[in-house]
Specification:
This protein is of the alpha/beta class and about 425 residues long. It has helices at about 15-30, 55-65, 65-70, 80-90, 105-120, 135-140, 160-175, 195-210, 240, 260, 280-295, 300-315, 315-345, 365-375, 395-415; strands spanning about 40, 100-105, 125-130, 145-150, 175-180, 215-225, 250-255, 270-275, 360, 380, 385-390. Helix content is about 45%, strand content about 15%. Bound molecules: pyridoxal-5'-phosphate (PLP).
């Protein structure tokens, strides 16, 4: 075949597997009705009737923006008020010490892209956990990098510090700089959250390693995509303060996403935020990431930035927004608890879940189990070594029923194997 694309851009045909299964679920709903289908596929908050949740507090502000404010360019780095307020939205009452700057990106995805493209060399490996959000691999590949993994869990189901540290050191010895992405709290796909003690140990490790090797560069990107649906109040942000006052060769970045927090998935809004050890590194971050904005998507979505800026600027609007967000956070936590308890009752093993949109059931032959579940009108995302259930998308009633169906499908595959 005479290809027109270059060798490194040859891609397999076909949709993203998550969107493909979601499409199959939609078709099944059209034939058997939505009450008869468990659609646990997309990572978006749905109400009990399977409709996408959109916050009134967000869309009343968005709809009242002037046409010209929506239509005009936002400026390459983002609008000044957004750039200021997104820092507050990210850290709330747990602002770390350091030189903090932000650049608008289209969602958290853009923030991950900028970190990979600017803080690793071409050909480098980015360190992520074995259970992970698949697009990290795509973004790395698209930018001529790749990923390598550490084991997320130790034998007690907590953060595998030994695996993380040894992989970091192995890479640092070879590459001399390492970007690692830690998706916590509310890790996708497991719902794991690192404890403050685990963060403390990571901070100690960075400090010791960085001081012993001033020529190395340690870059951490905290992917906090689901943070606003965790914990009771702000306690899941405490770790941010721990990541303060780093040595000169450690840089902490945050991938902030407004997709879930503001129910703005398609409006493509977010930011990359740095907590730099000195002003020079912070200034360098601003010029580099602004340049990357210009060279990729140019500007971000003005109307989405203005909406976030207006909500965070106005005490009353902010309160209404936070109340609405809290209401859905509680619903999500109740759904997840229903699944976790039902799984415990029947001894269905799950990865250590703490909070967030997803729960992982490790299993063999996930594709076969998922296909078996489809026969029962239950749609779930297959991972390499398990299944991803999404309480964000399924009613509490269905969350209660789901573990037994999963066990039944797993047992039937085991029997037929
Ligand atoms: C772990 C994780 N990180 C980042 C993102 C980025 O989301 P967005 O680009 O929509 O903000 C997602 C979205 O699903 C995610 O699951």
């Amino acid at each position: 075949m005479n290809r027109m694309v270059i060798e490194t851009s040859v891609r397999q045909a076909g949709n993203d597997p998550i969107f493909r299964i979601a499409e199959a679920a939609k078709n099944r709903i059209a034939t058997v009705g939505k009450d008869n289908v468990i659609n646990s596929t997309l990572g978006a908050l749905m109400d009990d009737n399977g409709n996408l949740v959109t916050f009134d507090s967000v869309y009343s502000v968005f709809r009242n923006l002037k046409d010209s404010e929506i239509a005009s360019y936002a400026g390459i780095p983002g609008t000044p008020t957004f750039l200021n307020n997104v820092i507050d939205a990210c850290f709330k009452s747990h602002r770390p010490k350091g030189y903090i700057r932000s650049i608008a990106t289209p969602g958290g995805t853009g923030a991950i892209r900028h970190a990979i493209a600017n803080y690793t060399e071409i050909g480098d490996k980015v360190l992520i956990s074995d259970w992970h959000w698949e697009p990290y691999e795509t973004i790395a590949d698209e930018n001529h990098r790749s990923v390598t993994t550490f084991k997320l869990f130790n034998e007690n189901g907590n953060f595998n510090m030994n695996s993380y540290k040894s992989k970091m050191l192995e890479l640092l010895n070879v590459q001399k700089r390492v970007l690692s992405i830690i998706n916590s709290p509310a890790h996708n796909p497991t719902g794991y959250c690192l404890s403050d003690d685990e963060w403390r140990e990571i901070v100690l490790f960075y400090t010791k390693t960085a001081k012993a090797h001033p020529e190395w560069r340690i870059i951490l990107e905290c992917d906090i995509a689901y943070i606003d649906f965790t914990g009771k109040n702000d306690e899941s942000r405490r770790f941010m303060e721990l990541l303060s006052d780093m040595p000169e060769n450690v840089l902490v970045l945050y991938a902030y996403s407004a997709s879930k927090a503001y129910t703005m998935y398609g409006l493509r809004n977010g930011a990359i935020i740095c907590v730099a050890p000195n002003e020079e590194i912070a200034d360098e971050f601003v010029s580099t990431c602004s340049y990357s904005n210009r060279g990729t998507w140019s500007n971000g979505t003005h109307g989405a930035m203005s909406t976030l800026a207006k909500i965070t600027d106005d005490k009353k609007l902010k309160k209404t927004f936070e109340n609405e967000q809290r209401k859905y956070k509680i619903i999500l936590q109740q759904r997840a608890a229903a699944f976790v308890n039902a799984a415990k009752e029947i001894n269905l093993q799950i990865c250590h879940y703490v909070d967030g949109f997803f729960i992982t059931i490790p299993c063999q032959k996930p594709k076969m189990v998922s296909e078996e579940l489809m026969k029962m009108n239950f749609f779930i995302v297959e991972l390499k070594n398990g299944l991803r259930f999404a309480p964000c998308a399924v009613s509490e009633e269905q969350c209660k029923k789901a573990p037994a169906l999963i066990k039944k499908a797993m047992d039937s595959i085991e029997i037929n194997a």
